[in-house]
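To fix ideas, we close by showing one paired sequence and structure record:
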Amino acid sequence: MDKYINTPITEETTKDLHSGDMVYITGSIYVARDAAHKRMMEALDSGKELPIDIKDATIYYMGPSPAREGRPIGSAGPTTASRMDKYAPRLLDLGEKAMIGKGKRTKEVIDAIIRNKAVYFAAVGGAGALLSKCITASEVICYDDLGAEAIRKITVENFPAIVVVDREGNNLYETAIAKYRTE
């Protein structure tokens, strides 16, 4: 079922999202990859505040290519989510509500999704040029020295994603395989 949702994504939003749903996201989301996640953990470990408001935040695991003239961002395809699995449970426990990436997640991340009534979306890998057309604004928020891995705040309009793991822990990667085997 197609659903149109706006950020911030809250518990109220996630209760209506189910594994396999196609969603179109509009609003502001953060972009962060490995190096930015590592730096956020270092900040937390040293007793500092996060550089972003994590409550009800959505983080897109993506490192954009340089923007072409007249565009806010270059190609914007998803990064493999498992690279953030060692950081995700802590951010979810701090209030993050959604992640966008590609690929499977660990049991620890899925447990944190369930515990925090969050959601994991997948974006289509290899479609970065098309996905970038849904991004209307982009600005570096912090960690500028990380280049493409700096934390950005982007504005998206009808950004397409698929609910992979819903707040109940239903996992499309598992249910789709099981369904395929029975057919």
Notes: The beta strands are 2-6, 22-31, 58-60, 98-101, 119-122, 135-142, 151-165.
